Amino acid sequence: MKRWLTLLALLAWSVAAIGADAPREWNSLTPDEQQALKPFEQRWGELGPERQQRLLRGAKRWQQMTPEERTRAHERAERWNRMSPEERDQARRRYERFRALPPEEQQRLREARKWYREQPPERREQLRERWKQMPPEERDQFRERAQRRERQDNQRGDRRNDPQLGRGLRPRQ
C-alpha cells in the first residue's frame, strides 16, 4: 500500500511539474491576471512558458501591492525605461554583484541605504559632495576603515543599529 501511495505521489508531482512548463492560453488567466497583463495580451501566445510564469508572478505581486507601492514600482519602471542600454547593463551588473554577496553583507548594505535615504536632503548632498571630493586612494582607505570597523563590531557582537556608525560615516569633528 505504501508503495502505491509513493508511486501515486510521484506521478502527481511529475504531472504538476510538466504542467508548470506548459504555456498558458490567455483565456485561462483570471480576469485580475488579464487586467494586470493587458500589455502582453496580443503576444501572450508567443511568450515562452518561463516568461509567462515570471509575468504571472509579477502580476500576483502587483495585485498584492498597496497603492503607494504600485506608484513606486511604476516610477521605477519609468526610470528604467529612460535609462540608456549602457546604464541598464551597469545596473544589471551592480545587481548581480549585490546578489553574489553573503546575506549579512546584503542586509548591511540595505540598512546603510535606508539610513542614507532617511537623511535630510542637505545631509545627503553633503555626503555626496564629500565622496566626490575624495581621491580614489582616500575612498579605498575609507572603505577599508569601514570594513575593519564592521569586522571588529561583529567580533565583539556589537551590531550597531545605526549603519552610520558601523560604516565609517561618522560626521567630521
User: How many domain units?
Assistant: 2
Helix content: over 70%
> What series of H and E elements makes up the topology?
HHHHHHHHH
Radius of gyration: 24 Å
- Overall, the morphology is elongated
- Report the portion of residues in β strands: under 5%
Sheet with most strands: none
Instruction: Report the count of strand segments.
Output: 0
Task: Tell me the span between the first and last alpha carbons.
Answer: 76 Å
Number of helices: 9
Structural class: mainly alpha
Mean pLDDT: 81
Report the uncertain regions. Answer: 4-12, 14-18, 160-173
List keywords for this structure.
single chain; about 170 residues; mainly alpha; 2 domains; elongated; disordered C terminus
Task: Write structural notes for this entry.
The chain has 173 residues and is mostly helical. It has 2 domains: 28-82; 103-173, no CATH class. It contains 9 helices and no strands. The protein is elongated and about 60 Å long.
Task: Give a brief description.
The protein is 74% helix and 0% strand.
Describe the secondary structure blueprint for this structure.
Blueprint: H1 2-21, H2 31-36, H3 49-64, H4 67-82, H5 85-100, H6 103-118, H7 121-133, H8 136-156, H9 163-166
